[in-house]
Amino acid sequence: MSHVDAFLKHLTERQFRYATIAAYRSLLERFTDYCIQCGVSDVAAIGRKEARGFIEALAPRDRMTLAGLRSISRICTYFRFLEQQGLIFESPLRGYVPPEAPKTHYAVLTEKEMMDILAHVSGTGRLSVKGRAMLELAYSSALRPRELYNLKRSDIDFGKELLFLELSKGGKDRLVPVGRQALSWVRRYIGEVRPRYLKGKFHGYVFVSHKTGEPLTVYGIRWAIQESLRRAGLPPIKTYSLRGSAATHLLLRGMGALPISKLLGHQSIRTTLYYLRIPLLELRKELSLKHPRRRMEESLKKEKGQRR
Predict the structure, then answer these.
(1) Counting Cβ atoms within 10 Å, is residue 86 exposed (0-12), middle (13-18) or buried (19+)?
(2) Which of these, 18, 93, 220, 229, could form a disulfide with 234 (CB 3.0-4.6 Å)?
(3) What is the spatial distance between Cα 224 and Cα 227, in angstroms, rounded to a whole number?
(4) Distance, CA of 103 to CA of 35 (rounded, Å)
């Protein structure tokens, strides 16, 4: 099917990440094979039947996943590019309404659960030091997994207690504060563990594979965290839960939603609200303590007491 290379070049010019472009390529190759099996080899001849048939093959509408919705969005983006470039008359997915996103969330840990995790991953072995450094960093600065594996030694300012996150999601750089405990564990990992893992390799990435010395992938980050938890006798957690938990705990301790949004690197406050999931009992407690009406009632009680 033609024009795929032109579309991928367009994504490259817009500075899409390499992994994202590779995902587009793989998806469009599958779509091309599907259309050829349907007897259509010319992109201009693709109709609604073929386009929607492929979407249905990705995931049934009643069992749609986030990955499926992402693929649908990418197919729509591809056809929209072809339409804008005049390479097809009209997108076969024009007017298509995708199913609703499944309501799945990463679990938010309580502060006690988070403190228990950090207390039990004690750092008595190399992997534990590595895992503890990752846990402390992710929780301290509400980092994405990709921001952990992209982190370089030159991105850490130990003196000013800042992290420079280069080309994070959306292709934007940002600076975020980082706690002293997290920096202490990172310094220990860099000094004691990382040199043993490098195996003669020369690069600036902080977290490296204990087998090859190469920079970790997102899967390597997940494995290191899960394995350090397993060795400490703790249940597994989703890496993204550290980010959501940090954001929620900051909100409960009084930080405003806008500063939290800036910390997380979100362009929209709506995205931030996705992370801020406060249990009902906690919300009720916060409401009773901080609502202005509560303060007014307390003030009135004091005035009555003074009059007596």
Answers:
(1) exposed
(2) 229
(3) 5
(4) 31
Containing domain of residue 167, as a range?
Answer: 111-278
Same domain, 77 and 140: no
Strand partners, 205: 152
**CA dist., res. 306 & res. 303, Å (int):** 5
Domains of the chain: total: 2
* Within-domain flag for 121: yes
Model pLDDT for residues 57-80, shown as the tens digit of each residue: 877 666 667 777 888 888 888 888
pLDDT category of residue 56 using cuts at 50, 70 and 90: confident
268 and 141 fall within a common domain: yes
Model confidence, pTM: 0.61
Expressed in angstroms, the distance from the first to the final Cα of the chain is 87
The pLDDT value recorded for residue 133 is 95
**Three-state DSSP state, 156:** strand
Mean pLDDT of 263-291: 62
The answer to whether position 76 is within a domain reads: yes
Q: What is the residue whose two structure tokens read 């397993």?
A: 230
The DSSP secondary-structure symbol of 45 reads G
Structure tokens, 205: 């990435």
Opening angle at CA 178, ends 282 and 188, nearest 5:
115
Domain-embedded: residue 195: yes
How far, in Å, CA of 225 to CA of 135, rounded? 7
* Helix (H), strand (E), coil (C) string for 52-77: HHHHHHHCCHHHCCHHHHHHHHHHHH
Question: Which of 247, 242, 200, 204 minimizes the C-alpha distance to 225?
Answer: 242
Instruction: Find the mean pLDDT for residues 232-255.
Output: 87
Q: What is the pLDDT of residues 101-130, one digit of tens each?
A: 655 567 888 889 999 999 899 767 899 999
Could you tell me the two tokens for 107?
């679990």
Rounded CA-CA distance 54/72 in Å is 9
- Whether residue 280 is predicted with pLDDT greater than 50 in this model: the reply is no
CATH number at residue 259: 1.10.443.10
Sign of CA dihedral 161, 165, 166, 172: negative
